[in-house]
Each structure stands twice: as structure tokens, then as C-alpha cells.
Amino acid sequence: VVGVTDADNAGVSGLELGLQDEIHAAAGGKVATSIDMRVQYILSHEVKQARETFTARAAGGIVMDVNTGEVLAMTSQPDFDPNVRRLGEHDSTRNIMAQDVYELGSVFKIFTFAMAIDDRTLKSLDEVFAIGQGYKLGKHTIHEAEHMPATLPARDILAQSSNIGTLQIAMRSGATRQRAFLDNLGLLKTLKTDLPESARPLYPAVANWGQTETATIGFGQGISVAPLSFISAAAMVVNGGRRITPTFVKQDSRDLRGEQVIKPETSAQMRDLLRYVVTNGSGKKADIEGYDVGGKTGSAQVPGPHGRYIPHALRTSFCGVFPVHNPRYLVFILLDQPHGTKEDRKSTRLNSSHLGIS
Question: Of 13, 34, 76, 106, which one is the catalytic site residue?
């Protein structure tokens, strides 16, 4: 995040480059960042430990204030020691949270539900949908990651992370509305922040954004975004529905939210729903006493060469917000192609060949 300078003290990467003009103009050449060293240390330590435990190829995390946009911590693993002027064998200078794009999978369902609630295409969270074991869509069949009951109410579609239920909700809005909704959240644009590192999202062209694309994008496949872009959009869903832009500079104001993006009542319903995911759904491990966490788990297949997904390869993530009914902090964690431990395999099995479309 901080980046490095060259021998002449000119910024080369990270905030040293992104804030170079501000640093030169500031008294004493000092600019206060939004990074909290305590939060940064904890996030870096935990993400590194998780990457080692689950032997993931890469891992990252972000903690952001949803009302000011201040990024309190960001880590990308593997990383490097900026005090050493050469990279080790396994070092990397790439900040995957800002300059890589990913199909994020089920955490993207947050936006499908926000759109449906905002547009009232969903009658209520108690509306029941047929699930079954496969959903035919043209020449494709959409599958679930895990066995699902024959029917599910809408709230449990998100809580249990049903692909088939979510795609039915997404298709009610249709391609044109889905594209406009995601665009309004900033997910179809390159996010500009104090960091010079950024990434352009990948998604279908208008002419190719049809029914199948609407369905798969509804549950987070077929669209790739940078994690920092995702967290910015997710913050708008939970912070009362108002626009917010991530910043790495310490802010004086406690509320920098902008225009209304979704209705305040939609945001309130989404907060209740994300709390339900943690208390009654796939996010139970995040139900920490005293914090009232809401959130959404995610797993996504990993695209490989020639447009096919790599068998049994997953990216897993979690987006959490707390305190959920008066949100302040949003946390996002990503593990790239982790491997389950013996303890995990005893308690749960996830067949990646049943994710997405076939």
C-alpha cells in the first residue's frame, strides 16, 4: 500500500507515487494516511496465517469505513519487504486487492438481492422459489455448489447461497436493468483512488449480455472486478445506500457519503438479510458475540485457458459488515485457490465441478 521510492526519493509505486504531489505540497513533506497500524498489523497477520494454513496461491484483505471511505487496512500476500532493495524468490510487488480482477462468485449475490429489493421485483423475502437440482438455460444447465432443498424462501436463497434461486431473481430484472444497476454502483468502471494501481473490470459487451449472462452474473460468475471496487459497491449497499469512494488519506469528517444510490429502506433490508446469513446461513463462523456481524460468503470457480474453468480450483471470500444495524466497518477477505485441511474435509465437502454452468 505504501509503496517505494527511488534513489531520488520520487514515488515509484503505492501511496508514495499516488500521493506524491500532496507530499511535496504538505508542511514537512508529511501526509497522514487513513491506514491504522494496529488494524493493518492484525489484518496482515491473519491473512498471512490463513494463506499458509490453506496453502492458497495468494490472499488479501481490506478493512474500510463505510461512512468515510477511509481504508484502515489493506494487505496483499505474497508481499515484499520495502526496506530490502531486491525481491526474494517468493516475493511479489503486486497488490491483488487493487490491480487484479476476479470472478468473486457468491458474494456478488449481494447486488442481485439489493437490485430486486430496490426495484420490488421480489415480492418479499418470504417468497418461495423452486430450486431442484439443475436449472436449464438454453443449452446450459446451472448447478448448485451443494445439495439444496426442492424449494427455498428468498431469504434462505441468500443465506444458503443458492445459485438457482439467485439467477431466477436476477432474471426478473433482466440484462438491461442489471447492467445499469451494476454500472451505477461503479462496478463497470475502473475505480480511481489515491493508489495508482487499478484494474479495468471484465464483463460482457452489451450485445452479448443476454439471459445466460444475466443469470451467471447474478450469482457472481462471468464478471470480474477488483476487490477494492467490490468493497466500494458493497459499502453503498449497507451504508444507507449512498455513494462512497475509498480513500487512503485520513479524513476530518465522520460522514463523507454522497448521493443516494439505492433507497435507504433497501439498505436497511439488506443489513437485516446479511445478519440473517451470519446467524442462520453459510456465515455462521462470523457470528462473533458483541459485534453483530452481517456478511456473505463466496466461492467461485477459477477461469483457465481457452475460456474453461480449472477443475476443482476455487477462490473463496467473505464480506462482513459490523455493527450491522448501524454499520461502520466493512471487511473483505479473499483466498485464491486454497486447499482444505483434514479438519475441513471431515466437516464439509465442496464439489467445485458443480459450481456455475455446464
Answer: 106
